[in-house]
Amino acid sequence: MLAKRKAASIETGTAEEARKVELPKNKKIKPEQRKADVEESGLVNRKYYPPEISQERCLQYNRNEIKRPIEELNDALRDTEGQREAIKVYKSVVHWFKQDLRTKDNTALHKASEKAKRDGVPLIGLYLVSPQDFEAHLTSRVRVDFILRTLQVLQEDLAQLDIPLYVETVEKRKKIPSRILELCKRWEANHLYANMEYEVDELRREALLVRKGAEIGISVNVLHDTCIVEPGRLKTGVGNQFSVYSPWYRAFVAFLHSHPNHLKIHPAPSQNPGFTRTKFKPLFEMAIPDAPISKALNDEEKHRYRALWPVGEQEACERLAKFLTKRVNNYKDKRNLPAEDGTSMLSVHFASGSISARTAIAAAQEVNSSPKLDAGIQGIMTWISEVAWRDFYKHVLAHWPFVCMNKCFKPEYTNIRWEYNDDQFEAWKAGRTGYPLVDAGMRQALATGYMHNRVRMVVASFLAKDLLVDWRLGEQYFMELLIDGDFASNNGGWGFSSSAGVDPQPYFRVFNPTLQSEKFDPEGHYIRKWVPELKEIKGKAIHDPYGKGASITAKRNGYPEPIVEHKFARNRALSRYKEGLGRDTA
């Protein structure tokens, strides 16, 4: 969820106002009770992960006392560099596709192709379907379907270059490294290339793969590609990782202006040798597997989602071109209006890797009136700065890996006393809170697998602050629901909305869902589209049907009354946050 940081139309409370809020007496929760609530809520998937990481271990990461997973991978690459460089190309080279399902501007694929072409051997593409990874990472069913359909298109694109794409399902996620090495041996490949992912599981898996490969004479090369500027490259004046977007973005722009090659676009891989189709004939005949049973869509869902979300690299490039030629000039003014066609709708392609953020920014730079990323056409400048959030959140994830372990970025926010009200959480998920903009957003997501970004912020704030439901439950639900689920961006957006993440709105600022509705959907077109119970209501009453004289119509059509009163909820949130921040961390 890419959060826009302009907090317009919120109840902006001040720090002074928050200080005046009375703390409830005798309500403080003990650390052991908080841990029990977290365990009972199912926040930690115990099938794949240990209990919640301790506060002390988070602080050890902050104090640089233990290695981060990205440092473990970098150590593995450095320690094996001499061994890997000494390994000679054998009879093929393999590229392992993950979240980079494209042929162009794919760093590892380009390097693999160069290596194969230089030695006159075939390039083989590999993708492993991991049902357990889909489950552990809460990958939505609609996103799994999008990935598998994208693989079909990618397989066809590569086949035109006589490059096979081998796709196999590996049931046990722990067996992925050994299976990859087995396939390399089968195909007589001594070189494997892959692009780096920045989540904890993936970094540790690749570190293991690099070392295991070196032991048996296979050079495993893991390269930076997803981020335009690799994590760790941008530092504050005292050499620390940025935790606030604005100074990070200034450093990002300055770096790219002085290192323009970082926006260089790699071409598609070269044509394979003519004998490839004969030698690796079975690989060209491999079918894309069906979705795992736990992630399969029914026939109606397949029809609906596939009509909404065409796949493939060409589709992504065409969508980008259409946006840059027809809508980007108005992006700054329309990006926050959910009823308008004002955004690029590329988030699903960024998440699956059918287009890169680097390609997007380079293309925007080409049509801008200035070669500078922070000058020229306002809409283009704004859009580039929004795309860059994806890099920022991945930089955060790499440096503070415990955000990938169900922990708040800010340790002091661990102690907030959340509610675990199942009825209210279910009402929020179903779009039946009695707040029209919140309900419209949730219903859009249920119907399409997508939600407008401004509305994502509103519904997230409503869950975390109006309902005081643990924001991590909402974070997980978005991943299970949305087609564009990207861990770093989703976690960053929820951290912003709950005030528990990097660069957040202060805790005493609380979105007023009615004011947000009036500002960003003034005519109510978005609400009427997704909340048909309210389509007969005219004027401003659409934003608050039970408070502006439209209650008879709303009630007759079955629209629920508000499940919480906003003023009460706001004061409760201020009290809980103040209470949680005022005591020692557990």
Structural class comes to mainly alpha
CATH topology of the largest domain: Rossmann fold
Rough shape?
globular
Alpha plus pi helix count: 28
Report how far the terminal alpha carbons are from each other.
29 Å
- Biggest sheet strand order reads 4-3-2-5-6
Number of domains: 2
Percent helix, as a range, is 40-55%
Q: Which architecture of the largest domain per CATH?
A: 3-Layer(aba) Sandwich
Instruction: Give the biggest sheet.
Output: 5 strands, parallel
Question: What is the CA-atom radius of gyration, in angstroms?
Answer: 25 Å
CATH class of the largest domain: Alpha Beta
Strand content: 5-15%
Q: What's the total count of β strands?
A: 7
**Could you name the CATH homologous superfamily of the largest domain?**
HUPs
The residue-averaged pLDDT reads 92
Family: Belongs to the DNA photolyase class-1 family.
Binding site for FAD: 331, 343-347, 383, 386-393, 484-486
GO cellular component, one term: nucleus
Cofactor: FAD; (6R)-5,10-methylene-5,6,7,8-tetrahydrofolate
